[in-house]
Amino acid sequence: MPTGTLKFISPDGRYGMISRDDKAPKVFVHLNEARQAGLDTLPRGQRFRFDVDADAQPRPRAINLECI
Question: pTM for the full model?
Answer without folding.
Answer: 0.91
